[in-house]
Design a protein that fits this description.
Elements (H helix, E strand, L loop, with lengths): L3 E8 L2 E9 L7 H25 L7 E5 L2 H9 L17 H7 L3 E5 L8 H4 L4 H6 L1
Parallel strand pairs: 3-4
Antiparallel strand pairs: 1-2
Helix pairs in contact: 1-2, 2-3
Length: about 130
């Protein structure tokens, strides 16, 4: 099965861009699926940053929220934090690590229970559905 990518980008207090799509490849773990999802979102993130900068706005470091701690370590350290289960991940998905080093983006941990993108990628029920 292929995982789903959910993107929810805000500017100020409102949603500026949302997307949900099936990933183009099969992944072996949730960590790899999350890394692919962040890589899929990076194009829109970078375009928005460049657009705002071209309009003369100061663009601070963009924060990408993620609920997978192993993925955060992989994106910050690329191949140097690889384990046996993540060594196979293609180097093209470490584009995020380059952007972190340039201080354009920052990946932070965010609890799964309040992750808004879960609305786009998972069937939610009851309290969680109402909350989100």
């Amino acid at each position: 099965m292929r995982s789903h990518t959910g993107i929810y980008m805000t500017l100020g207090k409102g949603a500026m861009y949302t997307a949900s799509c099936k990933q183009k490849l099969n992944t072996k773990s949730s960590t790899e699926a999350k890394l692919v999802a962040v890589d899929d979102a990076m194009g829109q993130v970078l375009w928005t940053r460049h657009f705002l900068a071209a309009q003369g706005h100061h663009v601070p470091t963009t924060i990408i929220y993620q609920d997978n701690k192993r993925m955060i370590l992989l994106s910050e350290n690329s191949k140097t934090s690889s384990l046996k289960r993540t060594r196979h991940i293609n180097i093209c998905y470490f584009f995020v690590a380059d952007r972190i080093k340039k201080v354009e983006v920052k990946v932070e941990n965010f609890p799964t229970t309040i992750m808004l993108t879960n609305f786009f990628t998972k069937p939610l029920q009851g309290r969680t559905f109402k909350k989100i």
